[in-house]
Amino acid sequence: MSGFRFQVVQVKDSTPQEWLRVWSGRYAADDDREHGDLIARYESFSADDFERIGKWKDGVTTEGRWKPNVASVAYPVWKQAAQELPKCPQKSEVADFLDRWRGETYTDIFPGKSVVKHFGLSRATTLLHFVSGGHYPIFDSRVRTATSRLGCSPVQDTVYWYLNSFCPFFFELAALCETENDLRRLDKALFSYGAFEGLPFPS
Fold first, then answer.
1. 3-class SS at 106?
2. How many of the other CB atoms lie within 10 Å of CB of 81?
3. Residue 105 falls within a domain, yes or no?
4. How many CB atoms lie within 10 A of CB 115?
5. What is residue 139's DSSP assignment?
6. Residue 71 lies in a domain
7. Where are the beta strands (DSSP E) in the chain?
8. In the list 43, 49, 190, 192, which could disulfide-bond 23, CB 3.0-4.6 Å?
9. Structure-derived torsion over alpha carbons of residues 54, 123, 149, 16, reported in degrees to the nearest 10
């Protein structure tokens, strides 16, 4: 048996600050520079910047994937955003902004079939995140899982729940973790915490 390493992940209660340190440290994507550069430019986004946001969100690392009919890449709607150059909505208009972009559809056309897909709330909140300069958090499936594991449930994939439950929860969590001045660190911790498959859900 020499040469083998058998390891387990210890699950234990921790302070909010330790939770933040551990899980933000497990964030594996090397995208901080791109995220930071885009956030710094949020008041003067160009068409190219919106395409960069789309590539960042949909995990596009090669130009060959930045085109229609690629799985998990909402290329037509990101191109639409690049044409429209949306701005950060007023607080009273945020729900309408999210409803509008969440509901945008695009069609992937393959030999023998066409598939209509929705832009979805995850991408819509990503768009809001960037045009707001990072003020609004991203709300994807991993973040929803993390939110449930932290005891905020039932989690709903709706604009109403995002604005009225998740956003207050997110900023309360930032205060508990003492990271109000670095919300990106909390984004990364939630992403990693929700992506890890070895953790139980609360009973």
1. strand
2. 24
3. yes
4. 11
5. -
6. yes
7. 105-110, 113-118
8. 192
9. 60
Radius of gyration of the chain (CA): 18
Distances from the Cα of 15 to the Cα of 4, 21, 150, angstroms:
33, 10, 12
Handedness of CA 176, 179, 181, 186 (dihedral sign): negative
User: Cα–Cα distance between 203 and 193 in angstroms, integer?
Assistant: 17
| 55, part of any domain | yes
Measured CA to CA, the distance from residue 159 to residue 54 in angstroms comes to 20
The residue type found at 17 is Q
Residue type, 142: R
Asked whether 120 and 77 are in contact (CB, 8 A), the reply is no
Residue-wise pLDDT for 131-183, tens only, equals 999 999 999 999 999 999 999 889 999 999 999 999 999 999 999 999 999 99
Is there a domain that residue 53 lies in? Answer: yes
Closest by CA position to 140, among listed 128, 157, 127, 152? 157
Q: Which domain holds residue 149?
A: 16-195
Q: Are 107 and 98 in contact (CB under 8 A)?
A: no
**How far from 54 is each of 68, 77, 121, 193, CA to CA, in Å?**
13, 9, 14, 23
C-alpha dihedral (187, 188, 189, 193), degrees to nearest 10:
110
Give the tens place of pLDDT for each residue, 186-201: 999 999 999 998 765 5
Strand partners, 114: 109
Q: How many angstroms separate the Cα of 25 from the Cα of each of 20, 22, 38, 188, 195?
A: 8, 5, 22, 8, 13
20 and 177 in contact (C-beta within 8 Å)?
Answer: yes
Domain tally, the chain: 1
